[in-house]
Amino acid sequence: VRETKKLTERPFGVNIVLQRPVEDRLTICLEEGACLISFSWGNPAPWIKAVHAAGSLVMHTVGSAAEAKVAVDAGVDIVLAQGWEAGGHVWGQVATLPLVPPVVDAVRPLPVVAAGGIADGRGIAAVLALGASGAALGTRFLATDEAAIHPTYKEELLKASEADTIYSCLFDRGWPDAPHRAIRNSTVHLWEKAGCPGSGNRPREGEKVAAFPDGSPVLRYSDVIPTPGMSGDLKALALYAGQGVGLVSRIKPASQVVRELAEQAVSTLRQLYSLSHAN
Ligand SMILES: Cc1cc2nc3c(=O)[nH]c(=O)nc-3n(C[C@H](O)[C@H](O)[C@H](O)COP(=O)(O)O)c2cc1C
Predict the structure, then answer these.
(1) Given a cut of 90, is residue 86 above it in pLDDT?
(2) Cβ–Cβ contacts within 10 Å for residue 203, how many?
(3) Position in ligand 1 atom list of the atom nearest CA 61
């Protein structure tokens, strides 16, 4: 957060996963001037007052309209509707297309940000058509110069198609019972070949697959992703990615990705506008 503050005068937000202790992290974020606190994976209600007292806004991730309504009634300012197509840990089980409109209807006039499966400007135009005020992209930004992940992970993202991800609880060592979407890799194939057994009965449980730069092991089925300096069979680790990974074909600077997303969203909306005005 402090590094980010050094790099920009512009507003920035911080995401806090509610599954881990919140208080210290939230205090630091607010002291350092984060304008937006985005919560996920839990109940944001106990923390909303503190964020508002600091003059910041609260966004919360939901997977249904009913959850969105509860969040807004508790004081959340912005709702992030995360569809099942999303990469990483996935909160809900409804896909983005059927999720966003009911969430928009449930919380109107508050803004909804759509997430999950959006990886280019056409996707942004599509969720604006669904009534969202904005889009949040995760997978697309993994394939950027700035993403702090290992080059091997970036290469696997470029190779994967929209059909190459799996939604499961497979990479559960470190974060059990939390569904996530990742690229199908050798660990997934090994598990599927064994008939998809439950945790504790899977092939090669406890095997060292890779190592951190200090030599400490990363075990099979760990929730750890390949980061710079790691060694070993990095392709066998959790390679989180959403179904939008099929739209990711080049590693670019994040600023270029943002510019291109905005340009393509605008040109798509213009095309749709002219279509609607033909004859
Ligand atoms: C590698 C990775 C890590 C993520 N980490 C978090 C996280 O810490 N907290 C969170 O709320 N969402 C996290 N997400 C989910 C994103 O915030 C977002 O909802 C999702 O990436 C949107 O779908 P997309 O991947 O199809 O763009 C992560 C996603 C990925 C791919």
Answers:
(1) yes
(2) 14
(3) 11
Query: How far is it, in rounded angstroms, from Cα 55 to Cα 47?
Result: 13
Return phi, psi of residue 60, to 5°.
-140, 140
pLDDT of 31 higher than 80: yes
Q: Which residues line ligand 1 (CB under 6 A)?
A: 15, 17, 40, 61, 82, 85-88, 115-118, 136-139, 142, 240-242, 244
Q: Which of 18, 89, 149, 227 is the best mutation target for the ligand 1 pocket, counting ligand atoms within 8 Å of the beta carbon and taking the most?
A: 89
What is the pLDDT confidence band of residue 202, given thresholds at 50, 70 and 90?
very high
Report the amino acid identity of residue 169.
C
The 10 Å Cβ neighbour count of residue 89 is: 21
Lowest pLDDT segment from 1-5, 92-96, 108-112, 114-118: 1-5
CA 180 – ligand 1 centroid, Å: 10
Predicted TM-score (pTM) of this structure: 0.97
Residue the block writes with tokens 């696997």: 156
Atom of ligand 1 nearest to the CA of 139: 25
Determine the distance separating the centroid of ligand 1 and the alpha carbon of 279, expressed in angstroms. 42
